[in-house]
Design a protein that fits this description.
Layout lengths: L9 H6 L6 H7 L7 E4 L3 E4 L3 H4 L7 E7 L9 H14 L4 E5 L4 H4 L8 E2 L2 E4 L1 H5 L5 H21 L6 E6 L3 E3 L9 E3 L10 E3 L1 E3 L4 H8 L3 H10 L1 E5 L4 E3 L6 H7 L7 E5 L4 E4 L14 H7 L5 E5 L4 H16 L5 E6 L1 H7 L20 H6 L1 H12 L5 E6 L6 H13 L3 E5 L1 H4 L5 H11 L15 H13 L3 E4 L1 H12 L7 E4 L19 E4 L1 E5 L4 E5 L19 E2 L5 E2 L3
Parallel strand pairs: 3-16, 3-17, 4-15, 4-16, 8-11, 17-18, 18-19, 20-22, 21-24
Antiparallel strand pairs: 1-2, 2-14, 5-6, 6-14, 7-12, 9-10, 12-13, 14-15, 23-24, 25-26
Helix pairs in contact: 4-18, 7-8, 7-10, 9-10, 11-12, 12-15
Length: about 575
């Protein structure tokens, strides 16, 4: 039966918490004080020497948290990741959690903060949500420095023969601002630059952000920056940041951003927060560098992959694990009652608006109708040889009969399952989930990539589309076919692929809920993120610069006379 008990706001819970000095959090994880660069009492960056300090410690079990196809409601992967890490302590294990850093765009837009929720949060919550140690600003500066040097090169004679109409490097800003999606620069006198059309993306969509998340070290970061392709010459040859002599200065701007940030949960579990690549067009995972440290900081490392298992988890397995060399022991698949009801197609949900009352009424049949998506996402995890554990993120408005339906679907699909009350009860509420994860990690690891490095790019795209999305096949535009052929000629064929599509459906069409069949994936364009190290196919229309709603979250945020933040959710 529903047990809806209103909790204090996330901010109120976080501000009432008693935190440990960050040195104590680090010490429990085996990190000596010499490896810390404190940012106040509660946050620190980890020096490169941390890896050597942890080198002799045993390898943790590696758990990725993903979800069913998300709805506008959000399914609670971050809160589940935090709750699970706390819950592992309640069953006698130690754990570390690795998360992406929240973007200021969603924080001040519709979504609000992304530090977890209820009694499963990262603290200080305000620092976590409000640009932390400045890594996003460093990414913004490095990205825009390269953009400035591109236009400066055009202005001073364009000795490389860069085609202004073939420049793909836009500018970025960590604010939702639809007015900047498409702009013309260089207007004014001849001294004001070469006029051309371009635009802004949000900072999380920057290739610099992705390669920061994938770089194993500062040296690796520097090399990846040099390989960034900003556009092509009139003869169709790629032009790189190295050729523009920009990569060195970009690396200097990122010399501190490459270091992961250490925070803690409400129950003082260590948290590594680092990077924040966009989930639609990029990898949507926290950093390889953080995971390479976290794997030696306790018995378990819990890391989160963005959006559903068809998006962030697929890229975690196929891209991130290729780079890190780490092999996952289990995957937690987050599901909610209300999300499966949404996938039944019976409800219209609008971000930022109140939920339809019918969505909260007891209706196990609607849960069963939306269960096709859960079954498909369980299959997607299993396709990589990883043991799935379904986590029912419980809400006070849920009904036992609805949980029973989810449990039956998961068990019939061969997955472990647990109901988790981590939002309302913290780690104690996630103890059942933690026990299931411990059991899953004890099973033999059979991890495998979905495709080989040697497979052609088209084969890689088709494999993901058919196996993970359930498509009948792939249709290429003439331009996409030409681009794939050219990328193979340029030597990019051995790179993994990322398919940029909507996160709201297994398909490219956000209106197709559940687990749609009988459709073909249309690829209209293919681009190469050579610095990051993958090729991405663009399917459908996605916004890489979000806009603000009628009443953005920023309207509620303010500062009190004592300097404390108010209105942050």
């Amino acid at each position: 039966m529903p047990t809806a008990q209103p909790l204090p706001s996330d901010l109120a819970i976080a501000q009432a918490a008693t935190l440990d000095p960050i040195e104590e959090v680090a010490a429990r994880a085996g990190i000596p004080p010499r490896c810390l660069e404190p940012y106040g009492r509660w946050v620190a960056k980890l020096q490169p020497s941390t890896a050597a300090a942890l080198a002799d410690r045993p390898r943790a079990r590696y758990v990725v948290v993903t979800a069913i196809t998300p709805t506008p409601l959000g399914e609670g992967k971050t809160t589940t990741s935090i709750g699970l890490a706390q819950g592992l302590h309640h069953v006698g294990a130690t754990a570390t959690v690795a998360l992406r850093q929240p973007s200021l765009g969603p924080t001040f837009g519709i979504k609000g903060g992304a530090a977890g929720g209820g009694y499963s949060q990262v603290v200080p919550m305000e620092a976590m949500n409000l640009h932390l140690t400045g890594d996003f600003h460093a990414v913004t500066a490095a990205h825009n420095l390269l953009a400035a040097m591109v236009d400066n090169h055009l202005f001073h004679g364009n000795s490389l023969g860069l085609d202004p109409h073939a420049i793909s490097w836009r500018r970025v800003l960590d604010v939702n601002d639809r007015a900047l999606r498409s702009i013309v620069i260089g207007l004014g006198s001849a001294a004001d630059g070469v006029p051309r059309q371009t635009g802004f993306d949000i900072t999380t969509a920057s290739e610099v952000m992705v390669l920061l998340a994938l770089a194993r070290s500062l040296g690796d970061l520097r090399d990846r920056l040099g390989r960034i392709v900003v556009g092509f010459t009139y003869d169709g040859e790629p032009v790189t940041a190295e050729q523009l002599h920009a990569a060195g200065a970009m690396a200097v701007l990122l010399r501190d951003a490459v270091k992961p940030n250490l925070l803690q949960t409400l129950e003082k579990t260590p948290v590594l927060v680092h990077a924040g690549p966009f989930g639609n067009i990029a990898t949507g995972n926290s950093s390889v560098a953080a995971d390479l440290l976290g794997i030696s900081m306790g018995d378990y490392l819990v890391t989160e992959a963005g959006f559903g298992a068809d998006m962030g988890a697929e890229r975690f397995f196929n891209v991130k694990c290729r780079v890190s060399g780490l092999v996952p022991d289990a995957a937690v698949l987050v599901v909610t009652v209300r999300a499966l009801k949404a996938h039944s197609g019976a409800h219209h949900i609008v971000p930022g608006r109140p939920l339809p009352p019918a969505l909260l009424a007891e209706n196990p049949d609607e849960v069963a109708m939306g269960g096709a998506n859960l079954r498909k996402q369980i299959d997607n995890v299993a396709a990589f040889g990883v043991t799935p554990v379904v986590a029912i993120n419980a809400f006070g408005t849920d009904h036992d009969s609805e949980h029973d339906v989810i449990r039956a679907i998961a068990e019939q699909a061969g997955a472990r399952v647990a109901v988790s009350h981590h939002v309302a009860r913290g780690g104690a509420g996630a103890a059942e989930l933690a026990e299931q994860v411990v059991q899953a990690c004890a099973e033999p690891t059979r991890f495998r990539f979905l495709y080989s490095d040697e497979a052609p790019l088209m084969t890689k795209i088709e494999t993901v589309a058919r196996t993970i999305y359930g498509a009948d096949g792939v249709s290429l535009s003439n331009e996409a076919a030409r681009q794939l052929s050219r990328f193979e000629e340029l030597g990019y064929g051995s790179l993994p692929v990322v398919i940029a599509k909507t996160h709201l459906s297994l398909s490219h069409d956000p209106s197709l809920l559940g687990a749609p069949t009988g459709w073909t994936l249309p690829v209209r364009e293919v681009r190469a993120a050579v610095g990051a190290g993958y090729v991405y196919a663009i399917c459908g229309d996605m916004r890489t610069m979000p806009g603000l709603p009628t009443h953005p979250a920023a309207e509620r945020v303010d500062i009190a006379v004592d300097g404390s933040v108010v209105g942050l959710f």
